[in-house]
DNA sequence: AGAAACCTTGTACCCGCTATAGGGTCAATC
DNA sequence: GATTGACCCTATAGCGGGTACAAGGTTTCT
């Protein structure tokens, strides 16, 4: 199949396939006489694998290592485990940061009562005070 | 004060200050005869405001809009609220995605028993099967 | 034969910085 | 007064993970 069909079946853009090839995530495929890339089912499987890892938010470098590892059947499975664990740790750290962020924004939004003008906006006041290192909102009368 | 002091007091890199100026987040400051930027306390406050919004993960374009709004005291506060609410929605969506990601990775990692070789690695098997659209892990012997 | 749909390479763009190169300026010290 | 070192300037390129062009070649359909 040609690149367009491969891309369509994997649900990615054509450019993305070429980008993955450049980055070594997909092997350079054979070409027709006129230079068109031709792929087989195996290439589709590999692309799907890459995409699935991407939906798990793994960086491309990590996916590349995973692909390398999977080709060496003798390597202890621990190496794979370590890679996934490290990724999981990063995801959990990001999750915690995002949760704190969510609560900050939610409480910020609660500052805004309808009908007010920007001049009296609680959100802006809060943001400005927070930016000045004031722990608690305390209107200084301005 | 010069750019180095401003940056130090706001806890950012000097390049970041210049980057914000180019992006219109900070006003172009006055210059000394030799071309050095000179800032006042007001500039520091504004930079702190920007940084605080950044710790809330707001994109620079949004911070710029917020700064614009805050200069127009007549604008209804709702506009600010809408902006923050939209951001909160995005953060919550990201949070949900990350939570699902976390559980996927955690269950993935549970596939790996120690002492195995990559040839029998549960993680890789799972990733490959998942990539092929198989809902449940089912080792085909291979 | 001509149009539409595909393919090719190469390049530039997005975000929010960060880093580097290649200079100029300023204050202190020898 | 010359040098050192810390600071400042502009311009440019890089990161990751793509996306979007431009400018052309090929294939397929009518």
Short description:
The structure is a homodimer of 142-residue chains. Chain A is built from 6 helices and 2 strands; from the N terminus they run H-H-E-E-H-H-H-H.
Task: Record keyword descriptors for this entry.
mainly alpha; homodimer; 6 helices; 142 residues; two-stranded antiparallel ribbon; DNA-binding
Word description of this protein:
2 copies of one chain form a homodimer. The first copy, chain A, is mostly helical and 142 residues long. Helix content of chain A is 61%, strand content 3%. Chain A is built from 6 helices and 2 strands, in the order ααββαααα. Chain A has a two-stranded antiparallel sheet. The radius of gyration of chain A is 25 Å and the shape is elongated. In chain A, 25% of the residues are buried. The C terminus of chain A is likely disordered. The interface between A and B is large, with 57 and 57 residues. The first copy, chain A, binds a DNA duplex (30 and 30 nucleotides) through α2.
């Amino acid at each position: 199949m040609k690149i367009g069909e491969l891309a369509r079946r994997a649900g990615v853009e054509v450019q993305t396939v070429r980008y993955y090839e450049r980055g070594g995530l997909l092997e350079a495929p054979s070409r027709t006489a006129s230079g068109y890339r031709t792929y087989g089912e195996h290439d589709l499987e590999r692309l799907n694998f890459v995409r699935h890892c991407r939906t798990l938010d793994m960086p491309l470098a990590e996916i590349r290592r995973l692909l390398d590892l999977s080709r060496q059947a003798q390597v202890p499975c621990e190496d794979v485990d370590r890679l996934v664990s490290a990724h999981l740790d990063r995801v959990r750290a990001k999750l915690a940061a995002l949760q704190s962020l969510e609560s900050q924004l939610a409480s910020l939004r609660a500052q805004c009562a309808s009908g007010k003008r920007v001049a009296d906006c609680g959100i802006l006041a809060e943001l400005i005070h927070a930016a000045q290192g004031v722990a608690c909102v305390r209107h200084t009368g301005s």
